[in-house]
Amino acid sequence: MEPKVIFKDVSKSYKIYNKQSDKLKELFLFNRRKAKQFHALRHISFEVYEGEVVGVVGLNGAGKSTLSNLVAQIIPPSTGEVIINGEPSLIAIAIGLNNQLSGIDNIKMKCLMHGLNNEEIQRLMPSIMEFADIGDFIHQPVKNYSSGMKSRLGFAISIHTNPDILIVDEALSVGDKTFYRKCIDKMNEFKERGKTIFFISHSESQVRNFCDKVLWLEYGEVRQFGESAAVLDEYTRYVKDFNAMPNGDKKLFKEAGLKRQYEPLVQKEPRQKPQGGGWKKAIEYTTAFVLYVAALISAFLMLWNV
Amino acid sequence: MIALSTVLKEQVSHIRLIFRVSVNDIKSRYQSHYLGGLWQFLNPLLQISVYWFVFGLGIRGGSPVGDVPFFLWLITGLIPWLYIAPVLNQGTKSISSKINMVSKMKFPVSILPTIAMLNNVVPFVVMMTIGIILVIVNGVFSGIYILQLPYYLLCMAVLVYSVTLLTATLSIVARDIQLVVQSIVRFMMFLLPILWNMSNLNAVLIVFLKLNPFFYIIEGVRASIIGHTWFFEDMTYTVYFWSIALLLLVVASSLHVKFRNHFVDLM
């Protein structure tokens, strides 16, 4: 069976800039003095197959959302390789709805941007509205929606655009029991159709009921990845132990974890420059240079003729 | 070159998406206004009448430019500018204003400036048509020279797209670009042959003003409607314009392709 999602030694680092101008310097001037780096994810490797439901658990700041953004291909990895065989779709609380537009217009907009045409949208519209279940508010601007309504609308749109890989980022935590039930039904439907689901949640019972496998992240590293029950048992024990710690110890523990995220990555092999791109660059620079010279000469001629 | 072909291919293969999103944009933009889509025309009409009053009646005392009444001379330059100016502003913001929406999905970001261009096409075409009719009615029409209008509109499209792709990409890295573009657009109108006739100006100064590629477009559109020159009569200037426009396009597309995977990180 083909793996749907492959992570090969993936790290995601963010540069910590002291000043806004440092960012520009780094971008354009190849600043030699490297900025301090924070590694949201460090050396992550795993494979997920078709039809698998993977729960992602971890404390706050473990890198769950970064991971979901990487799977959704919203952000590129800093090092390593992310291979996605299929069309991913991310569902998060901040789904990217336009606050000024009404619910209906948002549905249209999002579907258009996903490449659906008007007939398809008309066909999906009743089903999306029914699923989102926001009643007459669908004609109101989204800025008037409650957080639950927003997330329901976002969820409804995302699952109707027919993704192969669904990434659910704590979207269900704002819904009530009925909505949760409806989502789980829908996700089970996806599961039966052989689609892959990443389920990111703080609710251990939700993960236990729904997921086949669990990926446990801790301070940007994989602590465990395996069968759901085994990992979750360990995770529950870990959370219990953590909560039982006195406050001072908790703080020390967190600081140690964060400190690790600032440590440089392990360079396994010198990074290879992609081959064969050289001549493309050469063409680009030559064209730009020729055009530049042409502009200079013609400008000079214009002045000369006066 | 490679980046350029990537960007151009994206325009062609998403042409339907561009149209659909643009229609949707226009519909939703004026939704909360009582006068709705009428604003697309009211705003430029108000501007035309004020500039005509101030520069035509006030400063020039109603005297014509050559044989052409000032009002007709004004609108043949002002109508293209009333298209270019808002597109430059909206195009610059096009990526950063939609980044939250498009970042959660795979979306060809390079079509966002095109959508901004398309959003303003309808009032431009309507006003252009009315302008040409007015010119014909008043008997100062250029005749055969109108054939070069499509050429100048192509020039306009290429230049506006190149500039907005560049500014939209750069404004992700530094928001300041939006303000820079805004203020440049505001004063550039006075450095173009839109509101006042430059024939009295020192020839060297005119050449310096001509180095602004938008000069080529404004003068060209006017020459197509009320003028008596072909674009190939001044080959040096035509070569200059295209070198600048294509240089901008090459630079813009390679920067765009280089940075776009990092847009979300950069915000």
TrEMBL record, chain B:
The keyword Transmembrane helix applies. One of its GO terms (biological process) is lipopolysaccharide transport. The chain crosses the membrane at residues 37-58, 70-88, 109-137, 149-173, 185-208, 239-257. Keywords: Cell membrane, Membrane, Transmembrane, Transmembrane helix, Transport. It is a multi-pass membrane protein. Pfam families: ABC2_membrane. The keyword Transmembrane applies. Residues 35-259 form the ABC transmembrane type-2 domain. GO terms for molecular function: ABC-type transporter activity. It comes from the Bacteria. PANTHER family: CAPSULE POLYSACCHARIDE EXPORT INNER-MEMBRANE PROTEIN CTRC (PTHR30413:SF10), INNER MEMBRANE TRANSPORT PERMEASE (PTHR30413). Belongs to the ABC-2 integral membrane protein family. This is Transport permease protein.
